[in-house]
Amino acid sequence: MLADCLDKGFTREQRQRAYLLLVQTYLVLDDPIAAENSYLEVLRANPEYMPDPQTDPIDLVYLSKKFTASPVISVFGRVGINVSPVRVIYSVPSSVGLNAENTQYGLRSGFQLAFGGDWHISENIALMGELVGISSVSYKRTRDKMFGGSDYQLFKDNLTWFNTSFGLKYSFSRFFGSAVRKFVPQTYGGVTLGYLISDRGSVESFNNDPTDTGLSTIIAGPSSFDFLPYRNRLNYQVFGGASVKYKWGLEYLFIDLRYGFGMLNVVKPSSTYAGSPAQEFAHVDDYFRLDNLSLSVGYVKPFYRPRKLRKARTQSVIRQIKKSDVKPNN
Predict the structure, then answer these.
(1) Half-sphere exposure of residue 2: CA atoms within 13 angstroms, side-chain side
(2) Which of 45, 60, 257, 290 is least enclosed, having the fewest CB within 10 Å?
(3) Cβ distance 163 to 115 under 8 Å?
(4) What domains are there in the chain, each with its CATH number?
């Protein structure tokens, strides 16, 4: 009765309902092979389908534990904003024997985008890789009482990195006790390899003498410089983060929070007093590491593969039957 309708074309939801009817029919007729083949068609129609133990026949729930449609590979893209805290390794004086007072680093916003994929080892564990990533990060630094006076200097730096990341991801409790997976929390950690492709910085000097009518006026600048020759272009971060996926059809939307710890000095030690920034503005870089805190939103496309498991996961159903004293349907 269903054959002609299935051949002529059903919607995805109609195919799921039709094959579920066939599964239950074959179970009643004691035809396990046909029931299993029909259940595979259910998963092809809706890879996220899971029977509800509270409403579905227990033998259907038992059969479902022999199959999975979990993806082997998922691809994703993300975009968002970031800030980059500076961790100073060593404070370098503005000139030999002279330190500025009250050197302070501040946060400035940047952005990032990345594309990658997950290789799902199991239902909960996946290897993650972001093969293509671009991050634009920024920070600022102020130095008061330059050269013993009351002037101060403002430096703004904008860096652009090409990144490749690898890590391990863990997904918690897929269904939250329900047959419908709407929210999936995840945590992960790994390593990011970065290559600096651009670095532009601007330097300004201000008058800060309260007895001077020119208070807070610009003495020199702003002047923009290419800081790429003064930077170590290769670096890496160790990162950790968390995300929450939201089920959207057979795909997912997600929000992601990540923190990366910069591991290497960004500044070339040989460049401290070299070049125009130092000679024209008495600007020198401290030796520092650059961290990164990012917030992103993204999209995940799973590639599902309905298949029968080598080892059925039926123990939970057996425990449930014993607990509720429910007998399987004959």
Answers:
(1) 14
(2) 257
(3) no
(4) 3-69 (no CATH), 73-303 (2.40.160.20)
Let me know: does 220 contact 232? Beta carbons within 8 Å: no
Q: Quick check: 222 and 202 in contact, CB under 8 A?
A: yes
Instruction: Report CA 202 to chain centroid distance, whole Å.
Output: 31
Task: Express each pLDDT in 18-54 by its tens digit.
Answer: 889 999 999 999 998 999 999 998 998 888 888 887 8
267: Cα separation from own chain's centroid: 27
**Phi and psi for 36 in degrees, rounded to 5?**
-65, -40
Report yes or no: 160 and 111 within 8 Å, Cβ to Cβ: no
The C-alpha atoms of residue 178 and residue 37 are separated, in whole angstroms, by: 25
d(CA 330, CA 325) in angstroms, rounded, equals: 15
Which residues are CB-neighbours of 280 under 8 A, at least 6 positions away?
203, 220, 223
Radius of gyration of the chain (CA): 30
Q: Which residue carries 């997912």 as its tokens?
A: 252
Two structure tokens written together for 25: 């029919």
pLDDT tens for residues 62-79? 888 888 888 889 999 999
Contact assessment for residue 263 and residue 311, using Cβ atoms and an 8 Å cutoff: no
> How open is the CA angle 101-103-105, to the nearest 5 degrees?
170
